[in-house]
């Protein structure tokens, strides 16, 4: 489980770094969001900036929600997942949220998401394999 958390944090840190560079060019906070802050505070600021930059992008929002959820802030991660699924989520959205629940050991919630994914495209072999796994 620790490897999953570290991997998720590294992936988001990379995405946030890219996002901060882009944001700086577009008038966002840029590196000032984290400069001079203690590590945990800097990480939280970076996640907040990543969420802002994600806008309505479901893939990006789920990535941010994943970090919150797997790092222990489940309510904040869940709020992001709920925001994504309150619109018109695609099958891949359900799949990625289900993967987060599976990594958190919440197999019933993961299975529910995978079933919703399958209901959107019952002929998707990949989705069927995911449910089986």
- The number of distinct β-strands equals 0
- First-residue to last-residue Cα separation: 17 Å
Class based on secondary structure composition and strand pairing: mainly alpha
Strand content: under 5%
Query: What's the number of structural domains?
Result: 2
Radius of gyration from CA coordinates: 16 Å
**What general outline do the C-alpha atoms trace?**
elongated
SSE blueprint and pairings:
Elements: H1 2-25, H2 39-54, H3 58-70, H4 74-85, H5 91-103, H6 107-120, H7 125-132
Helix pairs in contact: 1-2, 1-3, 2-3, 3-4, 3-5, 5-6, 6-7
Write up what this structure looks like:
Helix content is 75%, strand content 0%. The longest helix has 24 residues. The protein is elongated, with a radius of gyration of 16 Å. The protein has two domains: 76 residues, no CATH class; 46 residues, no CATH class. The protein contains seven helices and no strands. The protein is mostly helical.
Key features of this structure:
mainly alpha; 133 residues; elongated; 2 domains; 0% strand
Short summary of the structure?
By secondary structure, this protein is mainly α. The chain is built from 7 helices and no strands. It has 2 domains: 1-76, no CATH class; 88-133, no CATH class.
């Amino acid at each position: 489980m620790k490897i999953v958390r570290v991997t998720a944090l590294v992936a988001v840190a990379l995405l946030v770094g890219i996002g901060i560079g882009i944001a700086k060019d577009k008038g966002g906070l840029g590196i000032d969001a984290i400069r001079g802050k203690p590590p945990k505070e800097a990480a939280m600021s970076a996640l907040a900036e990543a969420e802002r930059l994600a806008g309505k992008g479901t893939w990006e929002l789920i990535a941010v929600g994943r970090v919150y959820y797997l790092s222990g802030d489940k309510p904040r991660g869940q709020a992001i997942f709920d925001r994504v699924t309150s619109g018109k989520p695609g099958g891949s959205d359900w799949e990625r949220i289900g993967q987060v629940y599976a990594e958190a050991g919440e197999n019933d919630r993961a299975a529910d998401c995978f079933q919703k994914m399958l209901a959107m495209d019952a002929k998707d072999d990949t989705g069927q394999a995911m449910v089986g796994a």
